[in-house]
Design a protein that fits this description.
Layout lengths: L33 E6 L2 E6 L12 E5 L1 E3 L3 E5 L5 E11 L3 H6 L3 E9 L8 E8 L2 E13 L2 E8 L6 H8 L14 H6 L7 E4 L11 H9 L3 E8 L21 E6 H9 L3 E4 L1 H20 L5 E2 L12 H14 L4 E6 L14 E5 L6 H10 L2 H11 L10 E5 L2
Parallel strand pairs: 1-18, 3-12, 3-14, 4-11, 14-17, 15-16
Antiparallel strand pairs: 1-2, 5-6, 6-7, 7-10, 8-9, 9-10, 12-13, 13-16, 17-18
Helix pairs in contact: 5-7, 6-7
């Protein structure tokens, strides 16, 4: 490995973020947020509504169309003790679409709050879905690391698990907001183009987009592509080790259509909206490289392996994927990634990045530092000195490297 993660100290990626700079609530108008423009070392500011001014004609924007689910379920024991179950990802069935379509039972990997109080085998909750009363049961199956495998069953097969969650679940807003979810979060902690359910955290760079902004981009002949990466709770996990080689990166599932790969191959400039979209299309590139190397399509990218793989052209990698998909009549890539992008990584598909401002000591801040180098400090100093709002509900930036 040419780049050694044991040489990357997380203390070099810390900045002072005062509590009052964290945006606790969204602005009334999505595109009225501030926009920091980093263009080849020069920094300026504008409003997000004008982001079309900084996009080249005929470029391609890549959005993550994942949809945040109402992932937090609250049960109460007869004693009054609350037990909260936070659904992370489906286990049985493991396919997201199938899991949401189940009408009798489903099993999910979950984090359980107040686990010690869960003495009874089954937790019960009577809920109202439409005009019907439904009894929802939760049963502990087994432990999976720090998580639990929980089986949910309900006594009315008119309703899918998706409908159950929509009716009783709570929006899983980020823990650093230090508040309970409110009615405003159900709509605003969701992009306007969200489609496929599965995330427990929003791809927040997309929260600023409105129909008006999208229309301005289309009027500039900008092509819109969508990928899906279901954002996991691990996105909020800070790096606690002194060096990043001891940090275990979380796994996230993604889906990319063949038509999207074809358009990425033709695109001269790719503008990616959010770090989740970055992780998706960079992982896609490495899947193509692994396919060329091993003649097998691997469906998972591990944390460090990309730093050992050969560097091929965008054309070689994506053409390999397309040829494989055509030969095997596959319409989309369905895979997962644990990729960790840190300073020294060479981006393969991403030319421009639109992103919010991230937590100190986070893997997302490491990704930003990989993208624009040490200038990340200039960018964050500028944002702090110019009253930008930080984190999920905060302001945005467009990063155009040299």
């Amino acid at each position: 490995m040419g780049i050694k993660p044991e040489n990357i100290k997380i203390e070099d990626y810390i900045y002072d973020l005062p509590e009052d700079r964290i945006a606790k609530y969204p602005l009334n108008q999505r595109d009225s947020s501030k926009l920091l423009i980093y263009n080849k070392g020069k920094i300026s500011k504008d409003f997000f509504a004008n982001i079309n001014r900084y996009a080249d004609f005929n470029s391609t924007f890549v959005f993550n169309n994942t949809k945040v689910i109402q992932a937090r379920l609250k049960f109460f024991k007869e004693t009054g003790a609350q037990i909260e179950i936070f659904c992370l990802e489906p286990v049985d069935p493991s396919d997201y679409v199938l899991a949401f379509q189940q009408t009798k039972k489903v099993a999910w990997k979950c984090i359980v709050g107040n686990l010690k109080k869960w003495k009874d085998k089954i937790l019960k909750k009577v809920i109202t879905v439409g005009n019907d009363k439904v009894e929802l049961n939760a049963t502990k199956r087994n432990q999976d690391g720090n998580a639990q495998i929980i089986e949910f069953t309900w006594n009315n097969n008119k309703f899918t698990f998706s409908e159950i969650l929509e009716n009783i679940g709570v929006t899983p807003i980020p823990p650093y907001l230090n508040r309970e979810s409110e009615s405003v979060d159900k709509d605003r902690y969701q992009t306007i183009y969200s489609k496929l359910k599965g995330s427990v955290a929003a791809p927040t760079a997309g929260l600023h987009f409105t129909d008006e902004v999208l229309n301005k981009l289309k009027n500039k002949n900008i092509h819109i592509e969508e990928v899906t990466l279901h954002v996991g709770a691990g996105t909020f996990k800070p790096v606690k080790s002194e060096t990043i080689d001891e940090h275990e990166m979380h796994t996230e599932h993604f889906v990319v259509k063949k038509s999207t790969i074809e358009n990425l191959l033709k695109s001269e400039k790719i503008v990616v909206v959010g770090t989740t979209s970055v992780r998706t299309i960079e992982s896609l590139y490495w899947m193509g490289v692994k396919l060329i190397e091993n003649k097998i399509l691997y469906s998972h990218i591990t944390q460090w392996e990309v730093y050992e793989l050969p560097n091929l052209s965008k054309q070689e990698s994506l053409n390999a994927l397309l040829n494989y998909m055509n030969e095997n009549s596959i319409d989309e890539i369905d895979a997962s990634t644990q990729i960790m992008i840190f300073p020294g990584y060479k981006f393969k598909l991403v030319d421009v990045l639109i992103t919010n401002f991230h937590q100190p000591k986070s893997t997302l801040l490491l990704l930003i530092a990989a993208f624009i180098g040490d200038d990340w400090e200039k960018v964050y100093d500028y944002a702090l000195n110019n009253d930008f709002r930080f984190l999920s509900y905060g302001d945005s930036s467009i990063l155009i490297p040299n």
